[in-house]
């Protein structure tokens, strides 16, 4: 399976002091990440319709409390804008949309004057992208990610590789956050980190921990398989 960060076709929208429709989910969206969604609840069908009539952008936030469907949801205060890049109508009140993450934001307030949530946001870009240590941290990241994907490939019996390396350190950090097989709460922590060096360090720790766990699991499988083989060919 090839993994590649796709750039949105349109320039990223500035979200400074902006009002955005909000879609609380149990998924963390990162900039550059493609997110397909099936939209069937009436309030979110209306939200998508409103977006398509104006700006095709809404905010994706991880649900902290409540349900994403059927009732009120309390979101985490950091999310990512999602741009609608494809729409497929499956029937009345049933849409399949494709979105791509663009920019991180901080939520400053929620409004309830529409059937869906509307939030006031401020931009939340990664700071210190030109810090002196970023170069060395990026080199470490490339090596750690390569090893992690190699172990994931062995564990899943599916080849997972990068078609090309992201062009910027920020894009690499976001890609690693997407690929890490960790709970949504951990991904939300990564999304909420304010500066790039700190994000690299947190992700490096996670990559090392996940790689160690995969190595132990793969060794256990190998021991079991070798033990079964020895039983099959035992002269007794």
**CATH topology assignment of the largest domain:** Archaeosine Trna-guanine Transglycosylase, Chain: A, domain 4
Q: Please identify the top-level CATH class of the largest domain.
A: Mainly Beta
Task: Let me know the largest β-sheet.
Answer: 5 strands, mixed, barrel
Helix content: 25-40%
Uncertain ranges: 1-15, 223-230
Distance between the termini: 44 Å
Strand content: 25-35%
How many beta-strand segments?
9
CATH architecture of the largest domain: Roll
Q: Could you say how many structural domains there are in total?
A: 2
Decide which structural class fits the backbone: alpha+beta
Write the H/E string, N to C.
Answer: EEEHEEEEEHEHHH
- Mean pLDDT across the residues is 86
The tally of helices reads: 5
Radius of gyration: 21 Å
Spatial order of the strands forming the largest sheet: 2-4-6-7-8
């Amino acid at each position: 399976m090839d993994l590649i960060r796709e750039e949105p076709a349109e320039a990223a929208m500035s979200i400074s002091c902006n009002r955005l429709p909000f879609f609380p989910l149990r998924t963390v969206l990162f900039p550059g990440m493609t997110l397909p969604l099936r939209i069937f609840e009436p309030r979110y069908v209306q939200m998508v319709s409103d977006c398509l009539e104006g700006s095709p952008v809404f905010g994706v936030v991880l649900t902290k409390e409540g349900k994403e469907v059927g009732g009120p949801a309390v979101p985490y205060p950091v999310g990512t804008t999602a741009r609608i890049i494809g729409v497929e109508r499956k029937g009345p009140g049933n849409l399949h949309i494709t979105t791509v993450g663009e920019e991180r934001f901080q939520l400053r307030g929620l409004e309830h004057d529409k059937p869906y949530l509307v939030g006031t946001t401020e931009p939340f870009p990664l700071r210190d992208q030109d810090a002196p240590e970023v170069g060395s941290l990026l080199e470490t990241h490339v090596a750690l990610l390569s090893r992690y994907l190699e172990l994931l490939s062995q564990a899943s019996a599916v080849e997972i590789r990068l078609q090309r390396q992201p062009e910027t350190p920020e894009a690499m950090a976001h890609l690693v956050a997407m690929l890490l097989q960790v709970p949504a709460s951990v991904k939300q922590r990564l999304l909420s980190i304010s500066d790039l060096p700190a994000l690299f360090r947190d992700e490096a720790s996670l990559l090392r921990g996940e790689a160690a766990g995969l190595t132990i699991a793969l060794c256990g499988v190998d021991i079991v398989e070798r033990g079964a083989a020895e039983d099959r060919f035992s002269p007794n």
